[in-house]
Amino acid sequence: MQRNIPLEDVVKNVKTSVAFTEIMFSLQEMKGNVALILEDRRMNTYSISASTERIESEISVTRQQLNHHLEKLQDHFVAELTKAVENSTKQIQSFIMDLTKKQRDIEEWIEDVESIKKNATDKQTFLGMTNLETKLNKTSNDLQSWIDGNHLSQTVVSFHLDTLLHDIINERTKFGKVVVHAMPSKLALKRRMLGQAQMIKVNAKFKSSFEHMTLKLKVKMSTNAFNVSGCCILPNGNLVVSNYDPSYLILIATDGKTGIELSASCKQSLMLHVLIMTLLP
Question: Which domain of life is it from (predicted)?
Answer without folding.
Answer: Eukaryota
